[in-house]
Write a structure and sequence with these properties.
alpha+beta, two-stranded antiparallel ribbon, 22% strand, single chain, 93 residues, 4-stranded mixed sheet, 2 helices
Length: 93
């Protein structure tokens, strides 16, 4: 019997295969600062700046902060999607 497909995979290969990602604390999407949270592109875990139970405050993001990926999904799909980790150019030295 074939193994059931992972429920978290819903076409992300169209926009996240080979993506460059930055590991960083969560921050709002600069293009729309009214957004107060984001979700993991795979499992829908919530990223926010506020303190609430079961929310995430850091993860992997595309450099523009549009897509966020939680640590677990990053580990589960990093090889399948061929992600590249890049330096966070916004960090102050």
């Amino acid at each position: 019997m074939a193994e059931a497909p992972d429920w978290r995979l819903r076409g992300q290969e169209h926009y996240l295969t080979g993506a460059a990602l930055v590991h960083r604390p969560y921050r709002r999407y600069a293009v729309n600062p009214m957004w107060d949270h984001d979700h993991c592109a795979f499992c829908w875990a919530k990223f926010t700046l506020q303190e609430h139970p079961d929310v995430l405050h850091q993860g992997y993001a595309t450099p523009d902060d549009y897509f966020w990926i939680c640590e677990r999904c990053f580990e589960d799909f990093r090889h399948q999607f061929g992600w590249r980790i890049i330096a966070d150019e916004t960090l102050q030295t």
